[in-house]
Write a structure and sequence with these properties.
133 residues; alpha/beta; Nucleotidyltransferase, domain 5; 5-stranded mixed sheet; 3 helices; rod-shaped
Length: 133
């Protein structure tokens, strides 16, 4: 009677190619998801250039002013007369920051008037959006 030989014990191998593929997939996924996390509710405007530090707020409220004197609050079109009424419910407390994103060619008077109306709505802290050099 013939006895079978026991199988030769093979050592386990770590396949590196699938691990590289998985790591590249995770890297690409995190990069793409981080790009979508930028939540600035403003329209595309030609911002003035300046050197300012980057600040982040938890739930920003954005006041956008275009070059043709249109006013938007978080992409909602408003007028100077309705700005305070629209902005007041969005400001949760006195420490809420308001990001002013004014076009470089927007009339200075409309920007000042909009900021004054926002102040009457309860905005105390203004952040001015600028384009970095």
């Amino acid at each position: 009677m013939k006895l079978r030989k026991t199988r030769a014990v093979r050592k386990g191998r770590i396949e590196i190619i699938p691990m590289i593929d998985v790591m590249f997939f995770l890297l690409a996924t995190f990069m793409l998801s981080s790009l979508s996390l930028q939540n600035l509710d403003s329209l595309q405007v030609n911002l003035p250039q300046g050197a300012a530090e980057k600040l982040s707020t938890k739930a920003p409220v954005t006041l956008t002013l275009t070059n043709d004197s249109q006013i938007f609050i978080n992409r909602i079109p408003v007028t100077l007369e309705t700005l305070a009424d629209t902005l007041k419910p969005l400001l949760k407390d006195s420490e809420q920051k308001l990001i002013v994103s004014a076009d470089n060619d927007a009339p200075q008077g409309i920007v000042v008037q909009a900021m004054l109306r926002a102040r009457t709505a309860g905005a105390q802290h203004f952040l001015i959006a600028v384009k970095h050099k």
